């Protein structure tokens, strides 16, 4: 089938071809390791012993080399694109240092299929009530698909592979690596069930890492809902994957391991397949399991948005006593969280808006924050007025991108109670340790999201700004005595001058005297 698709149109079948190669590789790898793993380990044991003896100084060489490479890359590649990328790098360093100082021990097409079921149940005008009848059914659809993937064993296989990769690359234990990998695909209450038999035996640092991974990521079932809001699917997917290893790194920095880890070895962890008798029952169970999730999302949004309106009314009343009636929860959050958003690399004029969104996410939930972010994205795409009554209506694409990464996690006070209650019910004997580390885990999860946002800020540069930087870089040979007396010099001057006129609107760059080349 794959060969036939490639013969008909290889470009169209490229994704299928790559996926097929990956599946074949991992299946062959599993078969090979099952048969020859013992011999391979025995053959390479002298090499392993050598590296183990020399690892103390080798790791410092690797870290210094990596740090030097990153610094050189920032100097020679990123810095020339603008200072914002360097601010993002500074923010990344700042968050790492903060965690060290306060350490405990110093894609949209697929989603459209959900519309068919919504239209059948609610009628053709279901989209008139977008959130209830279009967005929430996507959560049910995602939950159904995830349950089916669990039944056939694909999710367990994928989670084990990702967890194994984190374990060998980051040096974390099998249990916390497995939970972090699971959090890429499932929620913060479902992923600990992957290691349910082992929770009683985890160290305090491992419990902290398990909770941090839950706070730093989002569930696959709600991912589709955020995409339907209008938030970039590629950035959300990337943030979900990046936040898992970032959560482990921050968790171990914020609460280092000081106890003996009891659960060791990849063969000690067995993943449950579920109790469904066939794939249809698995689909039904997935849909039914989404009912409390959908209800929880709906009622929490109604409650939190109502509370927000109430708080704003009270704050406005209090502010009016001091001739400042515009006082609101948004204004307070924008000033409190503005330094954090600015250090991620957000444009200064947008940092107050992103600070407000972080406040929404922290004190309410990420659904509220993404809903407001989606509204601003929509206004930007519609080319609406940038300011209305002195209030900025939307942000730059770069700021939107960084905000998407910063908000991509369950780190809020509502999830704090859910995490404590969920883990305590699974491991009652560890309730005290869970409650003691929950606040620190929420902070660590928040910082993990901020760090992925910093990385996005280092890498991401909007197309116009990128090309404008290149264009203006070559304008050194242009001498302008007056608008009518311009001397063009250098090989690129004429092209770059016309390029600037194409990239910048005339109010910002006067091109009336110059006719750009077509």
UniProtKB/TrEMBL annotation:
GO terms for cellular component: plasma membrane. One of its GO terms (molecular function) is purine-specific nucleoside:sodium symporter activity. The chain crosses the membrane at residues 12-33, 54-76, 82-102, 131-152, 207-229, 293-315, 327-346, 402-427, 439-466. Keywords: Membrane, Transmembrane, Transmembrane helix, Transport. The keyword Isomerase does not apply. Pfam families: Gate (PF07670), Nucleos_tra2_C (PF07662). Residues 132-230 form the Nucleoside transporter/FeoB GTPase Gate domain. Residues 235-457 form the Concentrative nucleoside transporter C-terminal domain. GO terms for biological process: purine nucleoside transmembrane transport; pyrimidine nucleoside transport. Belongs to the concentrative nucleoside transporter (CNT) (TC 2.A.41) family. NCBIfam families: nupC. This is Sodium/nucleoside cotransporter. It comes from Eleutherodactylus coqui. The lineage of its organism: Eukaryota, Metazoa, Chordata, Craniata, Vertebrata.
